[in-house]
Sequence to fold (230 residues):
Amino acid sequence: MKRSRINDIMAEADAMIRSHGFALPAWAYWTPDEFKARKHEAAEVIRARNGWDITDYGAGRYNEMGLFLFTLRNGRLDDLQRGGGMCYAEKLLISKQDQLSPMHTHALKAEDIINRGGATLVVELYGSDDQGRFDATAGGMVMCDGLRRDFAPGEKLRFAPGESVTLMPGHWHAFWGDGGDVLIGEVSTVNDDETDNIFREPIGRFSRIEEDVPPTHLLVSDYRTWLGAD
Fold:
């Protein structure tokens, strides 16, 4: 993706987030130079990989297959493993009309996917085999707003604003907006986007960036190269 396109997506996403009554934290708007100057202060933001995240899954077709994300908070895997402390994460996502977030599951993360506003969110679901692998013949059960919902293999569940689905490890899912763009909330256990996304097809989680213009704000995938973060 070109950096200029990423900058435009950030501006569009910020406008949509604000239109639904949400606001991002002040550090979301720091320039790269401000982030460098305040990286000691922002050590926990950097460690947790909070911030802007825009992906085309390495395919170069963002409008057809892509996702906007902003990680607001993210706990520690050590806390999750010992069963105490900051075991949770929260994100805002935007799924554009007919923009696919491709079929995947998570080995560790449980998540609530919430339609926070906009159009209809469509979630396509499959179950797993006994090894946790994708199974085109497997259905299963999810909780929708706390109510049990059985699903057939490949069933497409539809969620209006205010509605939600709880997805557990082994729930294979893809999603997109129907009838317009959707602002999505994600509340989950600790999130690790580098290792805990298991895609059905061999695709990348992060985009390759062409630096045609300077970044307006840093992506989480920029932290290593721009800030020297681990």
About this structure: The helical segments are 3-19, 32-37, 43-48, 77-82, 223-227.
